[in-house]
Design brief:
It is a single chain. The protein is built from eleven helices and 14 strands. The strands form three sheets. Strands 3-2-1-4-7-6 form a six-stranded mixed beta sheet, sandwiched between helices. The protein has two domains: about 1-105, 2-Layer Sandwich (Nucleotidyltransferase, domain 5); about 110-115 and about 135-300, Nucleotidyltransferase, domain 5. By secondary structure, it is α/β, with parallel strands linked by helices. The chain has helices spanning about 40-45, 45-50, 80-85, 120-130, 165-175, 190-200, 210-215, 215-220, 225-250, 265-275, 285-300, and strands at about 1-5, 10-20, 20-30, 55-60, 75, 90-95, 95-100, 105-110, 115, 140-145, 150-155, 155-165, 255-260, 280-285. About 40% of the residues are buried.
Length: about 300
């Protein structure tokens, strides 16, 4: 028996595992929302498991290893395979638990700048555990979210990646800018509005993203665009720009992309990719994180 945990900025997910089977699940606050120390939160949350199963080990990934987390784990430099990730585990004892925290990864991204990730690397290796990469094979992953990651994997090794704060930009513009204030409350999203935003960005090559964003407001004021459609239009502009930019950074236009994340967000990225005739497959991020932690536990030192 052991505990596997995905501890991100917004949520903590813990799994009590017996081999490959999940026996029980618990959830708690993310690192960004924690009112107490991560150590206190974890020990209190997992106390019942500890009482029922002596000598439990806990294996955690995500922002729990950040500077604001439980114990900071140094980044492993890319290129990195699962062996390099396992060698970078930070291990310590806390209360009745033997804890190990998965390190994040760092690289110089295709734009020549430093880049980092925490948690996504575990999801990627979880995806690879179910479908290993053949010798000489190159695969492109996208992990949509607050900070979307575009990741190149070759021969089972993460070569490099690029981060786009697409989700964060959307939330900031939706909640704290004038772009959303022209209409009433949003009651539902609009598929038509989203695809309209993707198309608008793709078919306006002379304009930058900043030139197009204000249309989110002006189309509500002058064209009668409902607010739900306007917010989806904004999402389409941002995700459309993200996808269009990634094409030039990571190779051939017709590349296949494996999406790892929340199914609804994966669906949006799949729609933007399909607009550019790029095929994609969608994997659940929660499942991949759990599979990745299992793979790290089982990997040979």
């Amino acid at each position: 028996m052991y505990i596997a945990g995905d501890w991100g900025t917004t949520q903590l997910r813990l799994y009590l595992c017996d081999g490959a089977s999940v026996v029980d699940r618990l959830s708690g606050p993310g690192i960004g929302a924690a009112a107490e120390s991560p150590q206190k939160i974890f020990v209190a949350l997992a106390a019942r498991w500890a009482a029922e199963h002596k000598g439990l080990s806990a294996h955690l990934c995500g922002m729990v290893g950040s500077r604001n987390g439980w114990v900071e784990t140094p980044y492993v430099r890319c290129p990195a395979d699962i062996g390099a990730l396992r060698a970078g585990l930070v291990k310590f004892e806390s209360a009745d638990f033997q804890v190990s925290i998965v390190p994040g990864l760092s690289c110089t991204n295709p734009l020549g700048a430093p880049d980092v990730m925490r948690g996504e690397e575990t999801q990627i290796f979880g995806a690879l555990a179910n479908r290993p990469i053949a010798s000489g094979e190159r695969r492109l992953f996208a992990l949509p979210g607050t900070h979307t990651k575009w990741v190149v994997v070759e021969n089972g090794t993460i070569r490099h990646f690029l981060t786009s704060p697409t989700g964060e930009l959307f939330a900031l513009l939706r909640d704290h800018s004038t772009l959303a204030r022209a209409g009433g409350e949003v009651t539902a999203s609009s598929d038509e509005g989203f695809l309209r935003g993707v198309k608008r960005y793709a078919e306006t090559p002379g304009a930058s993203l900043s030139h197009l964003l204000f249309e989110t407001r002006s189309r509500q004021l002058l064209d009668g665009m409902p607010k739900a459609e306007a917010m989806s239009f904004l999402s389409g502009l941002l995700i459309g720009a993200d996808v269009a930019g990634a094409q030039s950074w990571f190779g051939e236009k017709k590349s296949h992309v494996t999406l790892i994340g929340d199914p609804k967000l994966n669906e949006l990225y799949a729609g933007a990719l399909a607009f550019h005739d790029i095929e994609s497959a969608s994997l659940n991020g929660e499942d991949c994180a759990l599979n990745g932690l299992r793979a790290l536990i089982e990997a040979k030192a």
